[in-house]
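Q: What structure does this chain adopt?
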Amino acid sequence: MPLKRHKSLQPLSHEHHHSLLLCWKIRMGFRKQIELKRIKRYTDWYFHQHISPHFSLEEQHLFPILGMDHPSVKKALAEHRRLKRLFTDEHEFKKNLSRIEEELESHIRFEERVLFQEIQLQISKHQLELPAILHQELPYEENTSDPFWE
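A:
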């Protein structure tokens, strides 16, 4: 059953959905035995266009709601660091792509099921006004130059 999300968090949850699709695309690339460089090229683009800005937004505006020492925030920050390393490592493509697919999906599930729930309680409890940037949802732009997953 889908979780009811505070309106300020909905754009971030939508971005999570797109990142879950990235995980699916990586799996499809493996299943179809697509050349790893093609998958890596796409994940590099996705990281710079979507993941990196998303992580920055969460770290600057969302995580401070619970406090940077909160156990769930610490876990999310550690996962962000790990995922950044996996995305930017230029060696062992197959191993790193496989880890990205697994760890990104796990990270998103954690944020949606645990961290966002905790943040949402604080937003409601304290009637917090979140930055307007969290209310804005930019249209998702796909890179269709090489749709290896199709």
